[in-house]
Design a protein that fits this description.
The structure is a single chain. The chain is an alpha/beta fold. The chain folds into two domains: 11-30 and 264-361, Aspartate Aminotransferase, domain 1; 55-261, Type I PLP-dependent aspartate aminotransferase-like (Major domain) (Aspartate Aminotransferase, domain 2, 3-Layer(aba) Sandwich), CATH 3.40.640. The protein is built from 13 helices and twelve strands. Strands 2-8-7-6-5-3-4 form a seven-stranded mixed β-sheet, with helices on both faces. It has a three-stranded antiparallel β-sheet with strand order 9-10-12, with helices on one face. A two-stranded parallel ribbon has the order 1-11. A hairpin with a 6-residue loop joins strand 9 (289-291) and strand 10. The chain binds pyridoxal-5'-phosphate (PLP). Residues 84-86, 108, 153, 157, 185, 187, 214, 216, 222, 227 line the site of pyridoxal-5'-phosphate. It catalyses: O-phospho-L-threonine + H(+) = (R)-1-aminopropan-2-yl phosphate + CO2. Its EC number is 4.1.1.81.
């Protein structure tokens, strides 16, 4: 049986798995990072702050936490910096250790892994493509009375879809009565059109809301590790005590305010994504491909006319130098779709040309 890698962005592993020889690089559509990043000023800024690595970071990260709080328009006691979104997920899972959780699939794998790690009993809710990946809110709310927490991803990885505000409000209100927390991972929130804002302002109305963030995807800095949690101060205090000391390194501590200030980088990305995704989706429609109703920089794809041939489509794209993300380890997808990133116009055109070839030959 094929040993698929757990995450995207591993072209060398895939080359080995598929016995692809030679040095030619694959076009990587498997990782959902911003093709514009990192911001051009970052390399010099890393050098500028080089000296900070000779000191321990200030343990409360007061300056960088204050910059996150100001950026989000909330008090600093509602913010906890983390070593990427991954640490945020595991810290929050620890808060619910040995409890009961709900996870709506298909979604990011790490919620389940973190729950298992902390002996949390998990019930899965499967959401299908037939409904446009819309949450079955009625079914979920009925389960809330026996759950401590529900993990949601908004916008969701791997579908790119966004849970409707009214559905989320309903769950938070029911959760307020049943003592159920709702964790919403907003790792891709900066890619959304401005008409779909972050849930940060909701924190003041819903003490059972916990928000997770990551700067990884927007700024293309998976190696730096920057994330944060936003929640009621009582939760933040507990999580702070659980966190290992100096989890955030001093370079990152110094750079967070500057990254957050660079709104022009985020805005430029949003404008590009809006244009580019419109073009890609129009072309996919005319080529007869299904794509998930994504609002961000990746989508699920399969051939509408031959939905059972996704495995062959994956190999066909790979033979033509294009790496996509398999979906064998996303619950409910079973490899039936490919997750594909929106890349630069030049790269997207190459992908579309290969899909056209697939259509001509199939
Ligand atoms: C939905 C989601 N949340 C969190 C993360 C973790 O990001 P980080 O690199 O900040 O740990 C990812 C990474 O793939 C993700 O897709």
């Amino acid at each position: 049986m094929m040993k698929w890698p757990n995450h995207g962005g591993q072209p060398e592993t895939i080359k080995k798995l598929f016995h692809i020889e030679g040095d030619k690089a694959l076009l990587d559509f498997s990782a959902n990072l911003n093709p514009f990043g990192p911001p051009s000023w970052l390399q010099e800024a890393l050098q500028e702050h080089y000296k900070t690595i000779t000191r321990y970071p200030e343990p409360t990260y007061s300056k960088s936490s204050a910059s996150v709080a100001a950026h989000e328009g909330i008090d600093q006691d509602k913010v906890l910096l983390t070593n990427g979104g991954a640490e945020a997920i595991f810290l929050v899972a620890k808060f619910f250790e040995k409890g009961k959780a709900l996870i709506a699939h298909p979604t990011f794998l790490e919620y389940e892994r973190a729950c298992h790690h902390y002996h949390i009993d998990v019930e899965d809710i499967l959401v299908g493509h037939e409904s446009g990946f819309t949450l079955p809110v009625e079914l979920i709310r009925q389960k809330f009375f026996e759950k401590d927490v529900m993990f949601l991803c908004r916008p969701n990885n791997p579908t790119g879809t966004v849970i409707a505000e009214e559905d989320l409000k309903l769950l938070l209100e029911v959760g307020g009565k049943t003592g159920t927390y709702v964790v919403v991972d907003e790792a891709f929130v900066d890619f959304l059109p401005t008409s779909i804002p972050t849930l940060t302002p909701w924190l003041s109305s819903y003490p059972n809301l916990i928000l997770l963030r990551s700067l990884t995807k927007m700024y293309t800095i998976p190696g730096l590790r920057i994330g944060f949690i936003m929640a009621h101060p009582t939760i933040i205090n507990v999580l702070k005590n659980e966190q290992i000391p100096w989890s955030i390194n001093s370079l990152v501590d110094a750079l967070i305010p500057r990254l957050l200030e660079d709104r022009s980088f985020v805005n430029k990305t949003r404008v590009w994504l809006h244009e580019e995704s419109r073009n890609v989706f129009k072309r996919l429609t005319s080529l007869g491909f299904y794509f998930s109703p994504s609002q961000v920089n990746f989508y699920l794809l399969r051939d509408k006319e031959q939905p059972q041939r996704t495995g062959e489509l994956y190999s066909f794209l790979l033979e033509h130098g294009i790496l996509t993300r398999h979906t064998h380890n996303f619950k409910g997808l079973n490899g039936d779709f490919l997750r594909i990133a929106i890349r630069s116009n030049f790269e997207n055109e190459q992908l579309l040309a290969v899909l056209q070839k697939w259509r001509n030959e199939s």
